[in-house]
Design a protein that fits this description.
Blueprint lengths: L15 E3 L5 E8 L3 E6 L2 E9 L6 E8 L4 H23 L2
Antiparallel strand pairs: 1-2, 2-3, 3-4, 4-5
């Protein structure tokens, strides 16, 4: 993935972005081919890539900070699990 890829909204901290659904937010941090941190409402979401131990695969991780309650954490955990399932299905279809 590159800075010009739609997966990475922008390549510089402080840059605004807009989702396909129309939500607007800001890039908080970006390290090419490593991670991006973006605001999402009152939270910050980090998407990170890392090589797996076997070197043949890549790990994709989501982390969301500043959630307000255990209930919200569980809701978001379920959301990110569905997101990971969609990513895996898309990659399996290649």
């Amino acid at each position: 993935m590159t800075a010009s890829s739609p997966m990475w909204p922008a390549a510089s901290s402080g840059a605004p972005y807009r989702t396909a659904a129309g939500a607007t937010a800001e890039v908080r941090g970006y390290r090419p081919a490593d991670r991006i941190r973006v605001t999402h409402g009152t939270t910050t979401v980090q998407v990170a890539l890392a090589p797996a131990a076997d070197g043949a695969r890549t790990l994709l991780r989501f982390h969301q900070e500043h959630l307000t309650s255990a209930e919200e954490r569980e809701q978001q955990r379920a959301h990110w699990k569905r997101t990971m399932d969609q990513v895996a299905a898309a990659l399996d279809g290649q």
